[in-house]
Design goal:
Elements (H helix, E strand, L loop, with lengths): L16 E4 L1 H4 L1 H4 L5 H14 L3 E6 L19 H8 L7 E7 L5 H4 L10 E6 L4 H13 L3 E6 L7 H12 L5 E5 L7 H18 L2 E5 L7 H11 L3 E4 L13 H7 L7 H17 L8 H8 L5 H8 L5 H12 L1
Parallel strand pairs: 1-2, 1-8, 2-3, 3-4, 4-5, 5-6, 6-7, 7-8
Helix pairs in contact: 3-11, 7-8, 8-9, 12-13, 12-14
């Protein structure tokens, strides 16, 4: 079923929620080695900017990931979050992400009454949806809001996606996210997929979110295309910081949204103080030819990340390697 566009360029939709995932997706750039000053200033900037949710990182298992090799926001222990936010007596809610198979969720995710976290975001591939549903039910029983990200949907058939969406829509997830993991989608495809997700959501009273990657410099365009269809949870990162090509720029998104509660000035001040310094210190993300090529080829960005690490510039050869790997 085709849907009508929601809202206009001069109005705002009160159902829209903005989620900052700078520390989570951006943490993939620097192994989550953010200073406490960076995190505290981002927290305060998000509050001033009117951001609805701030994601602190992952709830990863220390049995799987060596804490010596990652910053503390890979694990998001309760004490570490509280050291930044106290009891978070603000309107902004806090979230963490839990990957299927990489989180000891029964032990590491506390009951909501013992935690300052509000939202558990579960990340799954299409073939691990039953495990994701188990995690969602656990988080809901513990008292949390819940969302689920189906990753790499650009590699999933329509039949599989329809079946997966139906299962998740019947679960305890409050929001189901459309995720462009490889930055491969164009706005026309986002329009079609948004309608598909929203039609399922309407049957079960769920919300839909969008998490876009910037391989083809379309993360912002795809985000506003999705919201124009009725998608209401919007992921963004400050300066687009995220793995590989990065994400939708928070600065762009807040400039587009008309809700007077959102204030981009606070984010710009944060960029001036912290993001320029991060790049000067060697953190690398953002649009580049190798990420464009993996986006075009609907490929995982890991090969482009390796290309960059090796300081290669033979772009034509890299493109041919990507083609060969799809044959």
């Amino acid at each position: 079923m085709s849907r009508q566009r929601q809202g206009s360029l001069v109005s705002y939709r009160p159902d829209i929620k903005v989620l900052d995932c700078t520390m989570r997706d951006g943490g993939l750039v620097n192994n989550f080695a953010f200073t406490d000053e960076f995190v505290k200033d981002l927290y305060l900037a998000n509050i001033k900017a009117g951001v609805d949710y701030m994601e602190f990182g992952y709830k990863a298992s220390s049995e799987i990931f060596d804490p010596q090799k990652f910053g503390k926001w890979k694990f998001c222990k309760e004490k570490d979050i509280r050291d930044i936010v106290g009891d978070n007596k603000t309107d902004m809610k806090l979230s963490v992400m839990a990957d299927v198979g990489r989180t000891d969720y029964k032990k590491d995710i506390l009951n909501k009454k013992d935690s300052v976290i509000d939202l558990i975001r579960v990340a799954t591939y299409i073939n691990t949806i039953p495990a994701a549903i188990e995690m969602l039910e656990d988080a809901k029983k513990k008292g949390y809001e819940t969302t689920v990200n189906i990753m790499a949907v650009s590699k999933v058939s329509d039949e599989e996606l329809d079946a997966g969406l139906e299962l998740l829509a019947q679960s305890s997830a409050d929001v189901i996210y459309l995720v462009d993991s490889f930055g491969a989608f164009y706005p026309e495809q986002i329009e079609r997929l948004s309608d598909k997700y929203l039609n399922v959501a309407a049957k079960y009273n769920k919300k839909i979110g969008i998490h876009a990657h910037n391989n083809q410099q379309l993360a912002f365009a795809n985000t506003i295309e999705a919201l124009s269809r009725g998608v209401s949870y919007l992921d963004a990162t400050v300066s687009g910081m995220g793995r590989g090509a990065g994400n939708c720029y928070m600065e762009l998104l807040l400039s587009f949204l008309r809700n007077p509660k959102y204030n981009k000035i606070a984010i710009m001040s944060f960029v001036e103080k912290h993001m320029l310094k991060l790049k000067e210190e060697g953190a690398v993300w953002g649009f580049d030819l190798p990420y464009l090529l993996t986006g075009i080829m609907n490929s995982h960005p890991s090969s482009a990340i390796q290309f960059e690490k090796e300081k290669r510039t033979d772009y034509a050869m890299f493109y041919q390697e990507l083609i060969d790997n799809t044959l």
